[in-house]
Design a protein that fits this description.
This protein is of the alpha/beta class and 325 residues long. 59% of the residues lie in helices and 10% in strands. The protein is globular and about 70 Å long.
């Protein structure tokens, strides 16, 4: 990321950039910064944007070979093409000889680092990975924005805010805007402010629901389920998230049993370390056999719904009742 910032500052650009990784907010931020530095996006003669898996590599090559019209360079932005997860030998070969007047900007969530296209971008340009940020990085980022607003926040409120928003930086940014508006007339942000305006993400609600299931607090678990239904969350999506939760807890428990620490578990399961820590705390409340049984029951509940033996709402409700009894 610092390399890209330096390129923008010095106006010395590579022939191609690959921005990839699961942190969507950062990918888009750097995409926009690079695009703005390279060219005016309103320059429709020399700026080209392609999105999706229907993008044709041959068309990109044809454009790259065309001299820019009354401009220093032609900029081709390709987003979510899926190219970096499939064989694109022709494009990979072409990237070795891109004209100096053309800059490619690829933006992808997932890439195969073994692929020729990834290696071509890395060898002939710059590849930047935007991974999910850990708790400390997110907290520093949040505190920086809060300070820019001339405000301050208690540690407790900060912890609660991050617990509610999760690690998605776009969601964090959106919730911060709401929090700033709500506390417009005061300097200090307290837990009560966070509780008043910040929405608890569905994954957090599912986590809390499973927590109540583990504690055999059946009414509380069902109340959380009914709240999600009232918020128009489809029962089958809730079932999917419950199954995912039990699966993550199962894997967490197995990895912990093999001696892995929270950071290693987070890396293997693509979870931030502090999220992995929360999963570890919850996993110890279940036996390994219980978690395996829960996953099997989730599959059985889905089958009952798909075969018409039971309604989706009832199937999930009975699942919650069974494991919270």
């Amino acid at each position: 990321m610092q390399k890209i910032a330096n390129d923008i500052k010095e106006s010395r650009f590579k022939q191609m950039y690959l921005l990839y990784g699961e942190e969507d907010y950062l990918r888009k931020q750097y995409r926009d910064r690079l695009t703005k530095a390279l060219i005016d996006p309103e320059d429709t003669m020399n700026y080209h944007y392609f999105e999706g898996k229907n993008t044709v590599p041959e068309k990109l090559i044809d454009l790259a070979e065309t001299m820019p019209f009354l401009a220093e360079r032609r900029v081709i932005v390709v987003e979510n093409s899926g190219f970096f997860k499939s064989a694109q030998d022709k494009l990979a070969d072409y990237l070795k000889e891109v004209p100096e007047t053309t800059v490619f900007l690829f933006v992808e969530e997932q890439v195969d680092k073994r692929g020729r296209l990834y290696k071509a971008c890395k060898d002939n340009g710059y590849a930047a990975e935007f991974a999910a940020q850990d708790e400390q990085v997110l907290k520093r980022w949040i505190l920086g924005m809060i300070q820019k607003e001339g405000k301050q926040i208690t540690q407790r409120a900060l912890d609660e805010f991050l617990e509610r928003t999760g690690t998605d930086m776009a969601n964090i940014s959106s919730e911060l805007e709401k929090l700033f508006c709500y506390t417009m007339d005061k300097e200090d942000i307290a837990s009560a402010d966070v509780d008043a305006v910040c929405v608890r993400q569905i994954n957090n609600r599912i986590f809390e629901m499973i927590e109540k299931v583990a504690a055999k607090q059946q009414k509380a678990a069902l109340d959380l389920y009914y709240d999600l239904i009232a918020l128009k969350e489809p029962p089958m999506r809730i079932l999917f998230l419950i199954a995912r939760q039990f699966n993550l807890l199962y894997q967490t428990k197995l990895l912990r049993g093999k001696g892995y620490d929270n950071k290693s578990i987070g890396s293997k399961l693509s979870l931030a370390p502090f999220i992995a820590s929360k999963y570890m705390s919850q996993a110890v409340k279940f036996k390994t056999g219980e978690l395996r049984k829960a996953m099997e029951e989730c599959v059985a509940a889905e089958e009952r719904v798909k075969t018409g033996k039971m309604s989706d709402t009832l199937a999930v409700e009975l699942l919650i009742i069974k494991f919270s009894s």
